[in-house]
Amino acid sequence: MSLDPEIPPSPFRSSQERQKERILKRQAVLQAAVRMFNERGFHATSLDEVAASLGVTKPVIYHYLGNKDQVLFECVRLGLSQIREAAVAARAQEGTGLNRLKAFLRRYAEINMDDFGRCVIRTGDETLSPESRREFRALKGEIDREMREVIAEGVADGSLHAPDVRLTAFTLAGALNWPARWFNPEGRDDRREVAAAMVEILCEGLRCRV
Amino acid sequence: MSLDPEIPPSPFRSSQERQKERILKRQAVLQAAVRMFNERGFHATSLDEVAASLGVTKPVIYHYLGNKDQVLFECVRLGLSQIREAAVAARAQEGTGLNRLKAFLRRYAEINMDDFGRCVIRTGDETLSPESRREFRALKGEIDREMREVIAEGVADGSLHAPDVRLTAFTLAGALNWPARWFNPEGRDDRREVAAAMVEILCEGLRCRV
DNA sequence: CGATATCTATACCAACGAGTAAAGACTATG
DNA sequence: CATAGTCTTTACTCGTTGGTATAGATATCG
Question: Given a cut of 90, is residue B57 above it in pLDDT?
Fold first, then answer.
């Protein structure tokens, strides 16, 4: 693969290198899978096709990931962990609750335009096996709680107005989830710009105030 | 079924009554199908199950609707036509653009909490056959255009602030689509209240203004 | 009554795709 | 070198399900 002139490519790998390669291959499977899931939908994507897109065969996928359900679950887990990190980062910031919320929301929106984030949104709970579904819901619930927390902090410090925190969180999340459906990575829209603009719309509202 | 004492139930139906019954049965199939699609997902729902839930067998469905794709397409078509009606009704109203928009959005949200509206949102384009998909997209495009039109009118008459109409429409639609995923018809939330509250959040924004 | 159209069920087919068994190639290690 | 472990392929099973052929039932109409 790589033609790095620094390191002469020895055919003998250390066990560390082997371990690394294993993880890399696993990731490659997930990447290929998530792309196809997002494009064609989970059920319309066969593992044969995923494997073929990597130039390998189906049992390879079963070697690195247990079954189709796990492939999907790993994809959404990756997406959700990105969002979780965003929440943690935002909450660690200085400033008003409103500012922390805006930072979180911008990142949240950006992730939802990326492969794994899109997969999180496009995956309905029904799609996963009962066990994965429970885990999936739990993880999403954490994100939701995190978002409500930030909102509540903003209400507490007077920087934002939200009589119904739960409904506010749903509204914001919905608006920023939707790009997972319409955003076209090949188009000319820039993720960051779109994210920032949407957050601005949500924070400022529609009503004109002159 | 009905024990209406006014009309003695004659076993002989006129051709009009037969026609009516046919339409009723067709609708019943769609109703049963949309419920299951929303609950389990399209691919996880077999037509055998849909038929069984009505106490009939699969060929009945094929008698009233051509194939599975058409069953789904009719469901989303029904949902989209409701939204279209809402748009027409809202645009016919008096008042500022903001007011017309709010009326439209409230109804839009309500429909998205009902069976067929939910189906529209939960159905990804990939799910439909190529022809149905094109039609589906065209219909959604019309709704989108309608929404942008109302927004533009509000901007024109100065009742609302929306520098980027397209992005504003996406943001609003996304927020109000999301209940199709989380709203529980069996819960204690009231459709109308939820819809009105969400629209209020969107119009007023989050930032506190004292 | 006989012919025709509508409606529904039984029984079936074909395709597709998830998952597996088995075996071969290659690597590491005692 | 031999043995064990890892990685990958070929070739298969098997359940599910969309869709259909056929035939029987019922009703309509000439």
Answer: yes
Three-state DSSP class for residue A146: helix
- CA atoms of B179 and B181, how far apart (whole Å): 5
Shortest CA gap B99–chain A (Å): 10
> How far is it, in rounded angstroms, from Cα B2 to Cα B8?
11
Domains and their CATH numbers in chain A = 14-66 (1.10.10.60), 73-204 (1.10.357.10)
> Hey, is the C-beta of B206 within 8 angstroms of any chain A C-beta?
yes
Chain B nearest-CA residue for A141: B182
The percentage of chain A sitting over the pLDDT mark of 90, rounded to a whole number, equals 87
Give Cα separations from A161 to A98, A147, B99, B105 (angstroms). Answer: 9, 15, 22, 21
Contact A206/B161, CB-based, under 8 Å? yes
Q: What is the pLDDT of residues B81-117, one digit of tens each?
A: 999 999 999 999 999 999 999 999 999 999 999 999 9
| Residue to test with chain B: of A43, A113, A133, A171, most B Cβ within 10 A | A171
Cβ–Cβ contact B204 with A under 8 A: yes
> What does the alpha-carbon distance between residue A79 and residue A114 come to, in Å, rounded to a whole number?
9
Nearest to B178 among A170, A205, A210 (CB): A170
User: Is residue B158 within 8 angstroms of chain A, CB to CB?
Assistant: yes
**Pairwise CA distance, residues B163 & B64, whole Å:** 48
**Rounded to 10 degrees, what is the CA torsion of A31, B134, A191, A86?**
-60
Q: Which of A116, A87, A119, A120 is nearest to A104 (CA)?
A: A87
Distance CA A80, CA B47 (A): 34
- Looking at residue B16, its pLDDT comes to 61
